[in-house]
């Protein structure tokens, strides 16, 4: 079975979320997520895509302001990239944001991921910048 749902940092799958983010987002850059301060994630909304009791995708929503969430740490297992998992995660995050009364989601997208977010209705809103050694763009989506 596979599905998208919300967990907390206390959930048994949270360590798999950390492991997935390490494999997909940090290790290729020679970084270790375990060196990051993850305490703030206790206050964030953690979406997971789970398949056969394994986390294969995740994304987090962080409170930005009264109207806005910041989407962060999107990661999908390499074997499932391009197969709709990321789209399911973003759709779930967008829907959740609307349900709790937010009007906007913003994010910092790696330059290579900009087309993915554009297909889902996100727009580039800022100049290119470097984050964790990679080119990024600020993007946002106004929610209806």
Radius of gyration from the alpha-carbon trace, in angstroms: 14 Å
Per CATH, the superfamily is Gcn5-related N-acetyltransferase (GNAT)
Q: State the separation between the terminal residues, measured CA to CA.
A: 31 Å
Helix/sheet category: alpha+beta
So, CATH architecture?
Answer: 3-Layer(aba) Sandwich
The CATH topology corresponds to Aminopeptidase
> Which spans have pLDDT < 50 for at least 5 consecutive residues?
none
General form: globular
Tally of strands = 8
Strand content: 35-45%
Q: What do the pLDDT scores average to? A: 94
The CATH class assignment is: Alpha Beta
Short recap of the structure:
This protein is an alpha+beta fold. It has helices spanning 14-26, 85-99, 114-119; strands at 2-7, 45-51, 54-65, 68-76, 104-110, 123-124, 129-131, 134-142.
Please tell me about this protein's structure.
The protein has helices spanning 14-26, 85-99, 114-119, and strands at residues 2-7, 45-51, 54-65, 68-76, 104-110, 123-124, 129-131, 134-142. It has 144 residues and is α+β, with helices and mostly antiparallel strands. Strands 1, 2, 3, 4, 5, 6, 7 and 8 form an eight-stranded mixed beta sheet that branches.
Characteristics of this structure?
single chain; 144 residues; alpha+beta; Aminopeptidase; 8-stranded mixed sheet; 3 helices; 24% helix; globular
Lay out the secondary structure.
Elements lengths: L1 E6 L6 H13 L18 E7 L2 E12 L2 E9 L8 H15 L4 E7 L3 H6 L3 E2 L4 E3 L2 E9 L2
Parallel strand pairs: 4-5
Antiparallel strand pairs: 1-2, 2-3, 3-4, 5-8, 6-8, 7-8
């Amino acid at each position: 079975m596979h599905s998208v749902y919300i967990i907390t940092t206390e959930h048994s799958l949270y360590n798999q979320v950390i492991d997935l983010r390490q494999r997909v987002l940090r290790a290729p850059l020679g970084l270790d997520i375990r060196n990051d301060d993850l305490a703030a994630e206790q206050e964030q909304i953690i979406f997971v895509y789970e398949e056969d009791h394994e986390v294969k995708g995740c994304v987090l929503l962080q409170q930005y302001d009264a109207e806005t969430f910041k989407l962060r740490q999107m990661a999908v297992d390499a074997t499932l990239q391009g197969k709709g998992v990321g789209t399911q995660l973003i759709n779930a995050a967008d829907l959740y944001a609307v349900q709790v009364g937010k009007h906007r989601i913003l994010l910092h997208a790696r330059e290579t991921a900009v087309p993915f977010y554009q297909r889902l209705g996100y727009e580039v809103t800022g100049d290119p910048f470097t984050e964790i050694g990679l080119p990024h763009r600020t993007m946002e989506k106004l929610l209806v």
